Amino acid sequence: MGGIMNMYHPTRIPIGSGFGHKQTPLGRRAVHRVRMSLREEGPSVAIVGVTGAVGQEFLSVLSERDFPYRSLKLLASKRSAGKTLTFENRNYTIEELNENSFGDVDIALFSAGGSISKKFGPLAVEKGAIVVDNSSAFRMDEGIPLVIPEVNPEAMEGIKVNNGKGALIANPNCSTIICLMAATPLHRRAKVTRMVVSTYQAASGAGAAAMEELEEQTREVLQGKEPTCNIFKQQYAFNLFSHNAPILSNGYNEEEMKLVKETRKIWNDHNVKVTATCIRVPVMRAHAESVNLQFETPLDEKTAREILSNAPGVVVIDDRAANLFPTPLEVSNKDDVAVGRIREDISQDGNYGLDIFVCGDQIRKGAALNAVQIAEMLL
Questions:
Q1: Over the stretch 118-173, which tens digit does the pLDDT of each residue have?
Q2: How far apart are the C-alpha atoms of 157 and 259, rounded to whole Å?
Q3: Top-level EC class, please (predicted)?
């Protein structure tokens, strides 16, 4: 299962611990008592792709948020089937994913790649499961909600476990989630007409194998050896390069176009202008993004800072005097998205533009946490 699998440990960490999260410890304990009492009444949950980096994070987030599952089924490829995984003091045998995996499943959390999702997602829905899919397979399909709970919860209105109907809900791309967590509260106030995004994306976005390759390459380069390049075609350690997604005919790569298309769908605004440049940087986990916003109505930086300070799932780190702003390292393993460098775009007159810098953990809010939050809304 690799080094990432061995790194997993279901330690309970208070949500937003040490990160200014808005939920109080008292409130957290109260939630814990209620959820534990409802556990026998909770849904049956399956995790598809449990041995991957996001699959492992699904387990961590379920535990930390005391998700009230009645039963848990761990699914992976034939290669991992039969292996044992300990979670919340119980031993589980990983099962091979197949057509018969979902007969008794209420909620299925998928993170096993687009081809797996396309094959097994509809099968799970036919069996009555609600699928929360982390791949790009269904994001742009008409009629399938693309959801960030803090941004557009209304998109999945009426979808509930107790309805007895299967459904498919798509988890947006990690870079889109991290961007829109910060941009949306400002969009609600002044309406974004154009957004320019430059991303600095970590190895975590390419999965556990990429994280391991970055670690291996770092050792090799420091020892004067030729770096091993299996996941990426070029040296990753001590380097950066254009995102490895395929380049399209318009010159944008697929990752960049996801930001364009997904933003329009999530905001339900097909007229908003979005352009993006996505870069892979040698950071282990957590993405950073430079975001330039142009508004329909004026929005000054002081008001923007106040809006972001009160936005759910967002924390402001914006200390100009100390030159202290968000970093990928600081948000790693954290739930909140951090935003700073909040400043007027001096190329535009009249407070019609802002620049912000955003960092968020790709595996947490960019993937597993967002999916589990969606699952919570199904209860």
A1: 999 999 999 999 999 999 999 999 999 999 999 999 999 999 998 889 999 999 99
A2: 24
A3: oxidoreductase
Question: Domain range spanning residue 102?
Answer: 2-172+366-377
Burial class (CB in 10 A: 0-12, 13-18, 19+), 79: exposed
- Is residue 174 part of the annotated active site? The answer reads yes
Active-site choice (174, 179, 278, 359)? 174
Report yes or no on whether pTM surpasses 0.85.
yes
Digit-coded pLDDT (tens) for 73-91: 999 999 999 999 999 999 9
Tokens of 342: 């909040």
Determine the angle formed by the axes of helices 254-267 and 174-190, rounding to 10 degrees.
40
Same domain for 166 and 180, yes or no, is no
- What average pLDDT does the structure give for the chain? 90
CATH of the domain at 147: 3.40.50.720
Number of domains in the chain: 2
Q: Which of 190, 180, 197, 200 is nearest to 353 (CA)?
A: 190
Instruction: Please give the structure tokens belonging to residue 89.
Output: 């003091």
Q: Are residues 346 and 213 in the same domain?
A: yes
Out of 179, 278, 287, 359, pick the active-site residue: 287
Q: 270 and 152 in one domain?
A: no
The 10s digit of each residue's pLDDT in 280-302 is: 999 999 999 999 999 999 999 99
Q: Using CA atoms, how far apart are residues 85 and 76, in angstroms rounded to an integer?
A: 12
pLDDT score for 334: 97
Q: In this structure, are residues 49 and 131 in contact, taking their beta carbons and an 8 Å threshold?
A: no
Rounded to whole angstroms, the Cα distance separating 182 from 357 reads 9
The answer to whether 213 and 221 have CB atoms below 8 angstroms apart is: no
Cα distances (Å, whole numbers) of residue 60 to 16, 24, 128, 215, 373: 14, 20, 25, 22, 13
* Phi, psi torsion values for 6, nearest 5 degrees: -70, -25
Query: For residue 93, what are its two tokens?
Result: 């045998």
CA 296 to each of CA 53, 189, 263, 293: distance values in angstroms, whole numbers, following the listed order: 40, 10, 17, 10
Q: Over the stretch 106-122, which tens digit does the pLDDT of each residue have?
A: 999 999 999 999 999 99
Same-domain status, 205 and 313: yes
What is the rounded radius of gyration, in angstroms, for the C-alpha atoms of the chain?
Answer: 21
Same domain (yes/no): 127, 251: no
